[in-house]
Amino acid sequence: MKRRRRRFMIWEWLNVLTANNGECLYCFDQSQTMDHVIPFSDGGADELKNLLPICRSCNRKKGKKNPVVWHVAQDLCLRWHGEGSLLDGAVLHNESLRELYLHTHTEVLEALTELEEVQTEVIDERRLDWFKRSFEHLGYPSANYGVPRARAQSGERIREAKAKGYPTVDEEWPDFLKQLEAVAKLLEAPSAADETAG
């Protein structure tokens, strides 16, 4: 039986897309979609613990590869010119295949550390709770109200919450009460039209 992908709610999209400062993990452009770290087609989980922010261009290039395979392929394409032999490069700065692999291996380990750091941010309980509480009411993306629109409208609120460490309900409650009191005062205050009529 073929597995089906699940639909993600807007709060889940916002949670993933704004991780890593809202940047694609691979090229640092603005993130636009969610990447399955372990590809869904290879049995990767279709849940937040397997999703990271990425741009559409990198998502197309990466395809159904995991980050390690993709990074190695990208790196070797850039550095290996196919000249020389297994043991030595043919021209200056053209490393042997072994040297290229060892260099790439170190970079892959560094990249995996970065992926793990962003993944930790995505699944942080306090952060998850804040996003769910703040945006669950938006439901699922639709033609009328999609993720880009929600992200644009919520950007400042998300930045403020991040600066405050994604406050809990108890931490947000005093600010909410102050806002309610301010609204109540505005409603109670006589308007200029009322004063001229009286």
TrEMBL record:
GO terms for molecular function: endonuclease activity; nucleic acid binding; zinc ion binding. CDD domains: HNHc. InterPro entries: HNH, HNH_nuc, NA-targeting_endonuclease. Residues 11-60 form the HNH nuclease domain. This is HNH nuclease domain-containing protein. It comes from Streptomyces finlayi.
